[in-house]
Amino acid sequence: MDINLSYGKKGLTVQLPTDLTTIVSPEFIPALPDQQGAIKHVLRNPIKKPPLKTSVKPGQKVAISICDVTRPMPNHTVLPIVLSELNHIPEEDITILIATGTHRAVTKSELTSMLGDSILSKKYKIINHDAFDENTLTLVGNTVNGIDVYLNDRWVNSDFRITLGFVEPHFFAGFSGGPKMIAPGLAGFNTIMPLHSSELIQHPKSKWGVTYGNPIHDTIREISTMAPADFSVDVTINKNHDITSVYAGNMSEVHHAACQFTKDTAMQKVPHKYDIVITTNSGYPLDMNLYQSVKGMSAAYQIVRPGGIIICASECSDGIPDTGKYKEILQSADTPSKLLEIISHPQHNKHDQWQVQIQAQIQETATIYLKSDYLSKADVQASHLKPVSNITSFINKIVEESITPPTICVLPEGPQTIPYVK
Known about the structure:
alpha/beta; globular; single chain; 16 helices; six-stranded mixed β-sheet
């Protein structure tokens, strides 16, 4: 059978044996029939908040936290409508903060794609959050588990704060969106590091779909109350990046509703674990680099048998990448086991170590192959992965050489689907 994988911007078709293959995809939800109308409706009829337009008063400084380029958030659809509800506020009094966390800054061309020329040509202040610039951060408090909370000072000092989030399952924080638009999105490095500590990452409840009892999400939620959003918008999308549901108002209520919708459609039961799991990282922009692609590997890890194979099809057009510390840490040891030993040391405290830790934990159980049209064979191997150029041929060879035919599961949309064994 032919299966189209979400890969880059164009997709990738593979041919797999029908009798051996199970396909697991999220329930396809069609786009809302009037996406713009639905957004306007929730902004004017929010959950446990007054309408956005009447909530913001002239003279107030407004900050809006939006997703960066690594998230397929339809900012170009949602943000203009939010701004239209704020047309009584001077443009120069509105700051749009790109919630990068520790990711690289969004480029001008990416901003044009994300927001459109009509927004960029106006007087709004558009700023990439910089977690490493202490001069742009404010200490707002401490969490119950002892984390110093530094947040973007423009966010903290604004009179009215708005988050625009995209909710999908998240491999260690439960779900994205909501409070994650504040931390780690707008947090300082010295807050993000302990929030992603080795101890918290390896906690059994730091996983897909869990937000309460998950020590990472519990702390994120606590941080979000220290400089809270006055108004929150969360959306869910389908594989075409069309909006399937939208919620606005009180952050806690909004995020809970969006998470429940996502859980009902994106988390799928399977009868058993599989010998081979083929996954993606949901295509562009989520598969821009290997760092992000660990999410697709983690989705597959939920249902691969011990000693099994994971094949991740991720374009990685932005490389490993060279920014951050992920590549440096990943290539600092000869084996995944050695990496885990290094990361678990109390004095090891480096940016991006959490992504390496999760990848290495998966590799303790499964062998990971990578299909990428941008990464060299040497880069793939230096990342403790095995390169594969043609998935169809690779699977055919395994089937031909196997005494017992292997069981195969495919996650065409990667971490947009979170499978779990019944």
